[in-house]
Design brief:
Blueprint: E1 2-3, E2 6-7, E3 12-14, H1 23-31, E4 37-43, H2 44-48, H3 52-56, E5 67-72, H4 76-88, E6 93-98, H5 103-106, H6 118-131, E7 136-143, H7 149-160, E8 165-172, H8 183-192, E9 197-200, H9 206-216, E10 220-223, H10 233-241, H11 251-269, H12 271-285, H13 292-298, H14 305-335
Parallel strand pairs: 3-10, 4-5, 5-6, 6-7, 7-8, 8-9, 9-10
Antiparallel strand pairs: 1-2
Helix pairs in contact: 1-11, 4-6, 6-7, 7-8, 9-10, 11-12, 11-14, 12-13
Amino acid sequence: MKIGNIQLDNPTILAPLAGITNLPFRIIAKESGCAMVCSEMISANGLVHRSQKTLQMLDSAEKEKPLSVQIFGADPGTMAAAAAMVASSGADILDINFGCSVRKVVKTGAGVALMRDTERTEAILTAVRREVSIPITIKVRSGWNPSGQDAVRTCRIAEDCGVDAVAVHPRTASQGFRGRADWRIIGTIKQQLGIPVVGNGDIVTPEDALNMMEKTGCDAVMVGRAAIGNPAIFSLILAKLRNQPAPVVDIEQRLEMMRRYLAASVDYLGEFHACRMMRSRLGWFSKGLPCSSRFRETIKEISTKADADAALDRYEALLNTRRSFTAESTRLCMQR
């Protein structure tokens, strides 16, 4: 799959996730087989006004490329200026958010609000396309009703304005992440556009990714919430798509991933901020493992990397003890 002049190694993409897909997380996803990673949603106003916190969100590393950076806003001039900053930062692709349904974003006219304002949509896309030469994508929802006509209309405008690909999350503005994503809308948009279409929504297992591609004809799949704490889902999806045996992601690999994520976060954010963040985030990676609730309790007060490393060491020892006990119990039962 190509987006503009950017060739992807495979059809898997990490969705932009506010507060989650920062540089350390993106690198972990990339190491797990994801073809393209996306930044958190970044305020165009924040970039143009040079907010230091917002500017930091443009940080990137060579090993995560190709990188897509997503911005949101409602003013064509501001969006164009922000797009130029994104291109100058070294991003490979610029993504524009047309799907955020958070109230504070929608009330400014940004996010999914743009899907019912065709004139503003066209003005923004025209201004941005004129300003930057890197590929442009947009991410949309179904729109404001279940029919998906808002999405079809917005994606057609995008193609006419020179956008290089679209990502479709087929839930309405009012659904948030509730209910089921209507994959039929992805298929409808794919049939009507000549540019690549990326499907997003309800990809929880590798089988879901394969089913979406088969049922909709989409060119790639975008995974969001299912990758939180489990970036290895990308390697599992690739194995399924290639009809290869699924790679084994054992406990040792999960723990090693947690340690790499911790170390990368400390390097990037500093020990104090990173460790406060790890109080919840390391727990994401333990989901589904034995004694995970006990582990989550032990990391609630970590303040240093040493605290976090010690908690991981204790958890690994607990899991090894549990496995040894289980193996011995099985051996004894077999002897009876």
